[in-house]
Design a protein that fits this description.
Layout (H helix, E strand, L loop, with lengths): L3 H12 L12 H32 L17 H30 L8 E8 L2 E6 L4 E2 L2 E4 L4 E7 L4 E5 L4 E5 L5 E5 L5 E7 L12 E6 L2 H9 L8 H11 L25 E3 L5 E3 L2 H9 L20 H13 L5
Parallel strand pairs: 1-5, 4-10
Antiparallel strand pairs: 1-2, 2-3, 5-8, 6-7, 6-9, 9-10, 11-12
Helix pairs in contact: 2-3, 5-7, 6-7
The structure holds dinuclear copper ion.
Amino acid sequence: MIRLPDLLAGSLIAAGPGYMPERASSVAEGVDHVFGFLFWLSAFFLAIIVGFTIVFVIRYRARPSRPGPEPSPDHSTRLEIFWSAIPLALVFVIFALSTKVYFAMVESEPGATPQRVQVTGRKWSWWFDHQGGKGSKELHVVAGKPVELVLASTDVIHSLYVPEFRLKQDAVPGRFTKMVFTPTVAGTYPVLCTEYCGTNHSTMTSVVVVHPDQGSFDAWAAEGKGTEETLLQVGVRVFEEKGCSACHSVDGSEGVGPSLKGIWGREEQMVGGAAVRVDENYIRESIVKPGAKIRAGFEDMMPPVPLDDREIQGIVAYVQSLKEGP
Ligand code: CUA
């Protein structure tokens, strides 16, 4: 049986320091502040509402001297506005606080070049392709260095969750999702799946290793190097195997289709006038549904190319590697 005092004590502990896991990322503090604000705001109104309920129940209980319910007073516009405006204002405050934290998780700081990690969720494990080519069942990052996680799923929706980072992001089949953060404290932390995905959802776990410095990360990345095909190698291979090079050059010369050189991150003009930034999702769409967006100056003539998720990730890595320059 749950006793009220225990429940209250539990709630106070939950909102206080020491209950939450360690804060090990740049966004953890902001998330905790939003959580704390929501918690205490709710606790405040809970106390007022329950308090008045108890007082009114006692004060206006049925008594022989009180024959029946009193007629309710007339409608009060002033009261209606009062109790609509206050919650509205509070909702705006919550919106402002959480939006600020949200943008810190989805956009890297201007000028920062985050380490990019391609995360793949599948039933029932995680796979991490690190920048530089190392693939692993564990996520490896460096303390103080910004990280960009690009998530994908090969089957159903999964969700990557690192409690110490206060980060959670869905991995959705058929598209890429992103999350940026900077790990702040070296150590090893659990990684969980937090979207129910079938029988072994509960064991779909891994760890994230936050290296204290780049040297430690490089030493790990050098282990067993060259034994597995990297995403970039997958991309180069698929690009040749599927005959992409017949229409798309990688040196800047325009052919039947646009060249892939230097397009990563660029805003391109489309037929119809819209500008589209070349990112993971645009590249995926251009492979599986080429007619969806056509670059200005080109024709809609590319057939859809049925690639699997890893092959698409490979092509993305290849396009990224084709930077502007000699
Ligand atoms: Cu994957 Cu739950």
